[in-house]
Specification:
about 200 residues, alpha/beta, seven-stranded mixed sheet, two-stranded antiparallel sheet, 6 helices, 9 strands, about 25% strand, globular, binds 5-O-phosphono-beta-D-ribofuranosylamine
Length: about 200
């Protein structure tokens, strides 16, 4: 029985698409049980529907508290028997109800080599800082923003003619490779945490 992913998005959903494609192509043994967006017109919702995946708009506004929104997400995910939550451009901080419901089972993708450049617009932050090597990180989500244990990183060189935009576009290509690989690695179960280091338990 393939494990069930819940993917949370806020926008374009190209990382969602990379997961859909990896599953369709047999590179990732999983299924996507639901896609939830806090933004109603997120193009990613349409990507999900096109792939026959349930796509829900659950706005983050109008709730009595941030925790109430989180609890609503937990209910929706649990009702659908979701095993692993993948944040894919979800522009909200997940709070304790989500972290407690899915301990060690929420992933995020971030377009920098963490711990450098957490937060928004990471590609531009890195470009303007003048880094020569940039990259992307998939990490387990913890209560601190962009700070959980690192699952996988991919790097690339910044080219002389790059702009923040061309760099961001090349980084996005790396994200699309990294996310399905990281999800597969986590679902394999062949890892453990040593402090904040995620180490493989595969035979060398
Ligand atoms: C990606 O750069 C991701 O790393 C960041 O938000 C962007 C989402 O892109 N968290 P998309 O919606 O997956 O196309």
């Amino acid at each position: 029985m393939p494990r069930r992913l819940g993917v949370l998005i806020s926008g374009n959903g190209s990382n969602l698409q990379s997961l859909i494609d990896a599953i369709a192509e047999g590179r990732l043994d999983a299924s996507i049980g639901v896609v939830i967006s806090n933004v109603g017109d997120a193009p990613g919702l349409e990507r999900a529907r096109r792939a026959g995946i349930e796509a829900l708009h659950v706005s983050h506004t109008g709730w009595p508290s941030r925790e109430a929104y989180d609890r609503a997400l937990v209910s929706l995910l649990r009702e659908r028997r979701i095993d692993l939550v993948c944040l894919a451009g979800f522009m909200r901080i997940v709070g304790s109800p989500m972290l407690e419901a899915y301990p060690g089972a929420i992933l995020n993708i971030h377009p920098s080599l963490l711990p450098a450049f957490p937060g928004i617009d990471a590609q531009r932050q890195a470009f303007e800082h003048g880094v020569k090597i940039a990259g992307v990180t998939v990490h387990l989500v913890s209560s601190e923003l962009d700070a959980g244990p690192i699952v996988l990183q991919r790097s690339l060189g910044v080219l002389p003619g790059d702009t923040a935009e061309t760099l961001a576009a090349r980084l996005l290509e790396q994200e699309h490779i990294a996310y399905p690989e990281a999800v597969a690695a986590i679902l394999s179960g062949r890892w453990r945490l040593e402090g904040r280091r995620l180490v493989s338990t595969e035979a060398p």
